[in-house]
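User: Please predict the structure of the protein below. I'd like the answer in structure-token form so I can feed it into my own downstream comparison script.

Assistant: Understood. Taking the following sequence of 180 residues as input:
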Amino acid sequence: MDWSWLGWLFVALLFFWGVGAYNRLMALRNAIGAAYVQLDQALSARAAHCRVLLTLLRPQLPNEHATFDALEAAQAEAQAAAQAVRAKPHAGDPVAALAVATALHAAALTRLMSLVEHHSELHHQGEVMALVDELKMVERQRAFARQVFNQAVEKYNLAAEQFPTRVLASFYGFGPARSV
């Protein structure tokens, strides 16, 4: 009896499993990219709202230039980090830099929001308060988009770590992704 067909069957099964595993990892990595698009839109909206708020508040709070400068610097760093992540949202180092930059931006923004709350004369300006409310809504959207991104990263990392896909992942250069 000729058993060579069994060897060919094994090779074919191994080949098709490899193709399926590769396609699954690519689909999960593409899902990270799609999730990052939502996060990037929320980060861009937050930056736009912050610019407008800074423009409105600078003349009204002349003694708070350090706070405004800190927010502008954090915003510039966050935008540069977001730009670096756009090319490869699954790469670990740019995403780690974005996580740090968004944390610094959030701290500076929190300081600005507390300034607005403590200056009662700003509460009577409808434009400022409307912008603050919009910024709070954008922050909620950013938090949700961040959660979606982190879930996509977790799914990808779990799939890449499973045996025997782990062997294929390292062979094709699928490294671990990083969450924000």
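That's the full token string. The chain is about 80% helix and 0% strand.
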